[in-house]
Amino acid sequence: QVQLVESGGGLVQAGGSLRLSCAAAGRTFSSYAMGWFRQAPGKEREFVAAINWSAGSTYYADSVKGRFTISRDNAKNTGYLQMNSLKPEDTAVYYCAAGRRSYYGIRGSDFDSWGQGTQVTVSS
């Protein structure tokens, strides 16, 4: 099991940027993929981005491609989501997740540990 703690959320104006962090403890950090998901009020949780164990491969939802960047620092046991050109529709609670395997999937069931979430609010 992996313990995950997100930070870095907040309120930002449209067009602004935020950087989310996800600190991990437990299972060897470099042994698993990581992902970010989000859930807006009244909507289902949706996939945002994922990265494999070595940071050599990433994948993004079409809605954030070109604006968000997922990364990880295995020496610091921390994952990141850099969010630029934020839009009001990006408003949601963002969750980081630890993958079941070293290579990522994009379904919730591909991940077996979740953080508590951090709120991101983008004002127009």
Describe the structure.
By secondary structure, the chain is mostly beta strands. Helices cover 0% and strands 52% of the residues. The protein contains no helices and 11 strands. It is globular. The chain starts with a strand and ends with a strand.
Chain-wise SSE layout:
Elements: E1 2-7, E2 10-13, E3 18-26, E4 34-39, E5 46-51, E6 58-60, E7 68-73, E8 78-83, E9 92-99, E10 111-114, E11 118-123
Parallel strand pairs: 2-11
Antiparallel strand pairs: 1-3, 3-8, 4-5, 4-9, 5-6, 7-8, 9-10, 9-11
Task: Looking at this protein, list some descriptive labels.
single chain, 124 residues, mainly beta, seven-stranded mixed β-sheet, four-stranded antiparallel β-sheet, 11 strands, 0% helix, 52% strand, globular
Order of helices and strands: EEEEEEEEEEE
The gross shape turns out to be globular
- Average pLDDT, all residues: 96
- Distance from first to last alpha carbon: 39 Å
Poorly predicted runs are: none
Helix content: under 10%
| Coarse structural class | mainly beta
Oligomer class: single chain
Largest sheet: 7 strands, mixed
The radius of gyration is 13 Å
Question: Concise description?
Answer:
The chain is an all-beta fold and 124 residues long. It has no helices and eleven strands.
